[in-house]
Specification:
Blueprint: H1 2-14, E1 26-33, E2 38-45, H2 50-53, E3 55-58, E4 62-68, H3 73-83, H4 88-98, E5 105-111, E6 116-120, E7 129-133, E8 136-140, H5 147-161, H6 166-179, E9 189-195, E10 207-213, H7 219-234, H8 236-239, E11 252-253, H9 254-265, E12 277-278, H10 281-293, H11 304-314
């Protein structure tokens, strides 16, 4: 019997412990762009899969981020309640009323009107907190300090004021949060979810971007790299000048059509007749004519200065 008990104890000690779901400490931003109809969530965490676990968004409905001891049902339920006409404050109140584990949760809810509400439970691991403002909420737990969310909020406001594309605003906020200290356990995963009505591949759905980095030494930098590739392929008109902020480095595509149409609206050259345009002599001639008319340096290239003037003259829409 003694030998049996010893063998049993040895077996129990050698057996792996029951798998335990890690608490999703992280920092994230939920935001909107009322002018262009974007809603989105961006997140970074020391937990693999954060880009799948934390965010949810539905075009013309709202966006939700659920983290800390994440109750992932908040994503589905939050969007359902928003769809029914509940305000973000009412959604938060409903979750607080019905979830017995609410003290450990952290989440943010935004509706299509850009109204936002956030919650950080008293038992969320320190440092934990959130900041809300016009068109955004930033939140995090197990952070190095309050400077993380404060820096995220400032970076988003600055990127929005500069008129940067929506995805770049979210990424700027994440980058600032990491620079201020981020998750005090380190980094592993990141994700970006953006929706817009008809903004998906070929206009077939509303998923403008849904990008994940599951395991990387610098997940935010890797997410930015993937984002730039994604945008240059699928949303070039929002990524490159004149509509975006990236250098006009690709000589053909939808962004060239946008340039051509904006120039035509400004009175130079003709509008595009298809969805694929080349930066050819006709476009270059129209660009130079616009530069001369605006007393700008004349060059066969599109600079940020010229792009900004073109957007100003045309309202940014062809």
């Amino acid at each position: 019997m003694k030998i049996f008990r010893s063998a049993l104890c040895a077996a129990l000690l050698a057996a792996p412990a029951a798998a335990q779901t890690p608490e999703l400490s992280t920092f994230s931003i939920v935001a909107c762009d009322p002018q262009n109809g974007f809603l989105g969530v961006a997140v970074q965490s020391r937990v693999v899969g954060a880009g799948s676990i934390v965010p949810a968004a539905e075009a013309e409905v709202g966006a939700v981020a659920s983290q800390a001891a994440a109750n992932v049902s908040f994503k589905r339920r939050g969007l359902e309640l928003l769809r029914q006409g509940r305000s973000p404050e009412e959604v938060v109140a409903e979750f607080r009323r019905t979830d017995p584990g609410i003290a450990r949760r952290q989440f943010a809810v935004m509706d299509a009107r850009c109204r936002v509400a956030a919650f950080t439970g008293d038992s969320a691991q320190a440092w934990a907190g959130h900041r809300t403002g016009d068109h955004f909420s930033v939140q995090g737990n197990i952070l190095t300090g309050a400077a993380v969310v404060d820096s995220m909020a400032s970076a988003f406001r600055r990127a929005e004021a500069e008129g940067r594309p929506f995805g770049e605003r979210l990424l700027a906020s994440l980058r600032a949060g990491q620079a201020a200290g981020g998750d005090r356990r380190g980094r592993q995963a990141a994700g970006l979810l953006i929706v817009k009505k008809g903004g998906g591949y070929g206009g077939g759905d509303d998923v403008y971007a849904d990008l994940h980095v599951e395991d990387a030494p610098e997940p935010i930098l890797e997410l930015e790299r993937v984002y730039n590739i994604w945008m240059s392929v699928f949303h070039a008109e929002d990524h490159f000048l004149p509509g975006g902020t990236q250098a006009f480095a690709v000589p053909a595509g939808a962004h060239v059509c946008l340039l051509r149409n904006l120039l035509a609206k400004a009175g130079h050259g003709t509008r595009a007749t298809g969805q694929f345009c080349a930066f050819d002599e006709e476009v270059i001639a129209a660009l130079k004519a616009f530069q001369r008319a605006q007393n700008l340096p004349v060059s066969p290239s599109l600079s940020p200065q010229v792009a900004a003037r073109l957007r100003e003259v045309t309202g940014g829409r062809p």
